[in-house]
Amino acid sequence: MVWQTIWGQIVDLSLVAVLLRLMTPILLASLGGLISDIGGVINIGLEGLMLMSAFTSIAVGSSTGNWAVGVLAGVATSVLISYGMGFFSLKMKVDIIITGFAVNIFGSGFTIFLMSKIYGMTGNYSPTGAPRIPVVNIPFIEDIPVLGKLLSGHSLMVWIALLSVAFCMFLIYRTPYGVHLRSVGEAPYAAQSLGIPAKRIQYSALAWSGAFAGLAGAFMSNGLTNMFVKDMTAGTGFLALAVVLLGNRNPIGILLGSLIFGLASALATIVQTVPNSPIPSQFIQMIPYVVTIAALVFFALRNKRRLATMP
Amino acid sequence: MPILLEMKNIHKVYPNGTAANRGVDLTVHEGEIHALVGENGAGKSTLMKILFGLEAPTDGTIEYKGQTVTFDGPRDAIKQGMGMVHQHFMLAPSLTVSENIVLGDEPKKGVFSMFRDRAKEFKEVEHLISTYGLKVNMQAKVESIPVGQKQRVEILKVLYRGAKLIILDEPTAVLTPQETDELFDSIKALVSQGHTIIFITHKLREVMQISNRITVLRAGKSIATLLTQETNQEEISRLMVGRDVLFRVDKIPAEPKDVVLAVRDLGALDDKGTLALKGVSFTIRGGEVLGIAGVEGNGQTELVEVITGLRKATTGEVRYQDKDLLAASVAEIRRMKVGHVPEDRQTAGASLTSSIAENLILDHYRNPDFKWGPFINKKKVKQFAKVMMDTFDVRAQNEETMAGALSGGNLQKVVVARELSKNPLLLIASQPTRGVDIGAIEFIHREIIKRRDGGAAVMVVSAELSEVMALSDRIIVLYDGEIVALLDNTPDLTEQEIGYYMLGIKKQELEATR
């Protein structure tokens, strides 16, 4: 029964659609984590940033009736908080890990606080008629049997996430800024001795991570669902950090890593919809997290082997 | 030759009252190689920081190309055509050679110069490499190239920025003899193309070999400026230290006693899992010093680690008196009166965030003398530390000073003091004087010989051939994990002779046991 359902979804390609949708927040957040990591200021606070953005996005989106304004507001909030992280960690010298944790705790608590103060809700806030991030239907292609299902009918944010991979490739490897970013993250004194403004670059790295986490969060409330649920990110920000490592700290690797997690989440979602499933749903919901652990163990083993065979 | 740089009467007093420079004059002529020598803490680094605009002088003037200048930071100094090659490389390991060279000044193209112009980058770097003959693969990642090439990248970096005056801060500290020779060739090539070099070092042999003129700093003052051809090592070291320094370690002939350490057919893997020791056999008797010579990375580190219990052996045996060291733990070995001065005092020799006193009792703290029930008896530790600091001439405010705040020489004295304070029967000294100034070298060498004369068996491992030759009674040469020579250190043994073995050009036929 379970296998039949999964097979059916693979055959009619709806698995691909689910996969892409679920991959998008992880991919975006990981790209943010990547840029901060490369700049030597790894942003542990992705989770909190996503929550803040998710809440802001749906709140502003539903009150203005415009999804774009909502998403922009979410991203702006996230970027602003990232700058705040920079202030605490780069200027006041608080350890970046601690700042990140603070943001996570703050993001979770403050969104619940605002939800109850503004909307009088404690668990979730689902405004009626809130605008969603639109779905892109490509004319002509949507009518082609297989290709149509593969390429058409995805949320705009899915495309933004995929384009972001290319954007990050360019930013990191093809621009002077990217080289400066890498040098600041790896050898800050070397960079400074050549007159590269290390602090400013690290601020910008945090801002980038905020922007990507903001997009990811906005998509969760304004695209994936149409509501804000407390702690709705459910560890996506931490999965994203795992993906950064798993993807070998480069955008293509991160795309592949996100696909794996997207697949795990998609399978979990599909299996959950099967009626009378013999597997308890708690086990199914574990899948993405088990995959995280397995993937990190695999990654560690591979690194160890590579170290051993180095000339 | 016209004067390029003149620093006059430079003073630098830090806010905490430390006077790092107390009247330094430095005059550098165009096209010369000017050596700046002095012990650690003599004020060399401060002077260069002032020249580079990293520190503002309290007093004094700098004239460059005939004009008085003040630099606000390295950017200014670089713009004026100065370049500094730091002792610790300032390179980003995962970037390529060419990316490192142009870092911060990348050729750009496109709208708003947003993109890197890699074609132009490669062309310019290629041009630099061929102009100066500093051969290095510009597409390789810096992490994958050897130390000597990393230094070339550093030199190319300053050349790319148009440096005319190049400051090399202890450039040979990390190089093998071969790489040093190559560096000197490059320096000569740079001078012949019109560059001027300031060469900071405390290795006098190199000063004599490469420089034209020498300025000596001592205790923050410039003591003298000499023409290299009119002076000698003895005179320079006297000026540096302020007294006569013995280059030859005074020692009476060894009187070897019973065998203390017997190593047989020892094999071990390195960190990457390749065979680093391939069946090494030797013995050391009480009352003799066995020197281990060899280019670094030929198994010396692994050998020391196996004997001291830090690394597992794959084959062979190590007998110490009548005990099997391979079966003993590090703690057990340490309790058997085995002293070990590790090659890296920063990571293995001392705890930098602990005080001098704590470092001195690091492996004696279980000794009942230092204890009071289950607690450490602070008073006794303090007394002990004071005595040790006196005996070993450790210069610090008091025994509570953090080890990390000590200069290399003083820290090494702390490590040596700890290892010698338990009267070892076997002393293993790995790079005992690396990065240590002349006065301290002399002291440490004397202490090592004192232990030998007291009947201890001593093994000295050093990358400095002169050190091995000064201390040892017998010398073995390691090449590629094997002993290729066992030599008696007679007066007619030359460095060249050992050098042939070190490079693997010559090899003795050795019986397995000796």
Span between termini of chain B: 59 Å
Order of strands in the sheet with most strands of chain B: 6-9-10-3-11-12
- Distance, first to last CA of chain A: 51 Å
Contiguous low-pLDDT stretches of chain A (5 residues minimum) are none
CATH architecture classification name of the largest domain in chain B: 3-Layer(aba) Sandwich
Q: In the residues of chain A, how many domains can be counted?
A: 1
The chain pair forming the largest interface, with residue counts per chain, is:
A-B, 20 and 26 residues
What is the class of chain A in the CATH system? Mainly Alpha
Query: In sequence order, what are the helices and strands of chain A, one letter per element?
Result: HHHHHEEHEHHHHEHHH
Strand element count of chain B: 24
The CATH level-2 architecture of chain A is identified as Orthogonal Bundle
Largest sheet of chain B: 6 strands, mixed
Strand order of the largest sheet of chain A: 1-4
Unreliable stretches of chain B, pLDDT < 50, 5 or more residues?
Answer: none
What value does the average pLDDT of chain B take? 88
Membrane topology (chain A): Multi-pass membrane protein
Keywords (chain A): Cell membrane, Membrane, Transmembrane, Transmembrane helix
Protein name (chain A): ABC transporter permease
Subcellular location (chain A): Cell membrane
List the helices and strands and how they pair.
The complex is a heterodimer of chains A (311) and B (514).
Chain A (H helix, E strand, L loop, with lengths): L1 H10 L2 H25 L7 H19 L2 H25 L4 H24 L4 E2 L9 E2 L8 H7 L2 E2 H19 L1 H11 L1 H6 L4 H27 L3 E2 L6 H11 L4 H23 L7 H29 L2
Antiparallel strand pairs in A: 1-4, 2-3
Chain B lengths: L2 E11 L5 E11 L3 E5 L6 H8 L7 E6 L2 E2 L5 H6 L2 E4 L11 H6 L5 E2 L5 E2 L1 H15 L14 H14 L4 E5 L7 H16 L3 E6 L2 H7 L2 E6 L2 E7 L5 H9 L17 E11 L5 E11 L3 E5 L6 H8 L7 E6 L2 E2 L5 H6 L2 E4 L3 H5 L6 H5 L10 E2 L2 E2 L1 H14 L16 H13 L5 E5 L7 H16 L3 E5 L3 H7 L2 E6 L2 E7 L6 H8 L12
Parallel strand pairs in B: 3-10, 3-11, 6-9, 9-10, 15-22, 15-23, 18-21, 21-22
Antiparallel strand pairs in B: 1-2, 1-4, 4-5, 7-8, 11-12, 13-14, 13-16, 16-17, 19-20, 23-24
Helix pairs in contact in B: 14-15
